[in-house]
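Proteins fold. Shown next:

***
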Amino acid sequence: MSNSPYILVLDCDMYCNDSISAREAMCFYVDPRTPSSLGWVQYPQKFHNISETDIYDSQLRTLWTVYWPGFDGLQGPVISGTNFYIKREALYGFDINDGSLPKDRGDCFGSSNEFLKSLSQNDKSKAIKGREPSPLLLKEAHFLASCIYEKGTKWGDKVGFRYDSVAEDAMTAIYLQNHGWRSVYLNPTRPQFLGTATTNLNEVLVQGTRWNAGLLDVGLSKYCPLIYRPSRMQFLQKLATSWINFYPIDCLALLGFSVIPPLCFLYGI
């Protein structure tokens, strides 16, 4: 557990392939030309077990080489599930243009006094160096990590990652960008993170079904970028993000392209 101002998020099947990834991400955060609204730095997903043919496109080439660089010219890509450094403040659920935390902090963040005190932007974290943590601090840490801590709070709804969808990354990113946060896409030559990709049709179908169902669920919910209010998302960003949400229904057009021409040929139309 940490109260570091920045958090690295990785899936369990990903690992760091280059120790300078944090330094590269911090270059954006500490650059005086970077606006304070920068919420996260997104790296692409790269894999170590891709076959030579990759007939199922497990490495998602179009996503990382075309779509995400295009998003980078707007308000940045949505959170891609893993391989990103996110600013802790972005997870606190406040509008970046307002700059203030909710007044009802206890109802939002829970009843941990130590945690509530650390929310202040003027509060400096106290690192434990060369000594054992106090019993009080350990008790507080156990309390924060307990399953009942979030009950009756805004965690999973207005604070932290959203729990309402299997595509919690996209839903969280849409919420943050609608409240003024931005992101950047960083794709260096050397892969900063590597992971394990799907290698057979069954795995591709299971993973694809989960992803597409989650994205469409977000698109049909109140978090749809086209209808979400209040919104600070740019118009082009809304269109691009909505396309991501409704990407699963592209299958209808593909089905038409694959079925109608053969039928026309068969019946001589």
